[in-house]
Amino acid sequence: MxxxxxxxxxNIVDQLIASSRFKVPLASYxxxxxxxxxxxxxxxxxxxxxxxxxxxEFAALFNGENISRRAALxxxxxxxxxxxxxxxxxxCDVEGVPSDEADSVSFTTSVVELALILxxxxxxxxxxxxxxxxxxxxxxxxxxxxxxxxxxxxxxTRYRHGREQRIEARANFGQFEIFDNAAIPFIDDxxxxxxxxxxxxxxxxxxxxxxxxxxxxxxxxxxxxGADSYQDGRNRRILKRHGARxxxxxxxxxxx
Length: 256
What we know:
two-stranded antiparallel sheet, 7 helices, 7 strands, 16% strand
């Protein structure tokens, strides 16, 4: 079965993916032969999306001889899972005040662990394969089956906390960061880094920019995507602009 050129297998896999009648999971064909496995993993491992609670499982995908899968990996999208607020499951931002300290610990720990994994994969690979790393978002998880809403039990058309209350509460939230003493190893394989400043990541301090950038020696492209939202409130918007400017251009004398 492994007598055909690799290009033929690649074409067959491309046709399987393109076929509207293809219903069987592509990975199920990987056990046919070694070349089938190689051709399929070039697709299934090209773009991976993981959560920081899955970092151990992500690292295990490349154990032993499976380090060959690193050659297929081109883009890695990471979602950071932050801790549940100490006051339990909130109905909205008015009740769900996050802990800056707890979020900073979680964010720092996840970044360090991810960097250690990627650094190890690069050291074990036979050559360097460029990687596009994306910090796509951050969110919180709550116990299964536990969910509260901000619905008003006396009037289903209104919320217990109004829109203005929720906006004001979120505007007064603090910020989390990567600690100064975080031991982030060098990640030689990353050549492009993309940061989505959305969802819970809007609360991250831009001080992480130089701390991560100096650990990516082969960085060629850096993209910081976000929005200047009125709902963030005046003080946070100023902090975000100043934080971005002084993190990217330390000592800058530019004025806002």
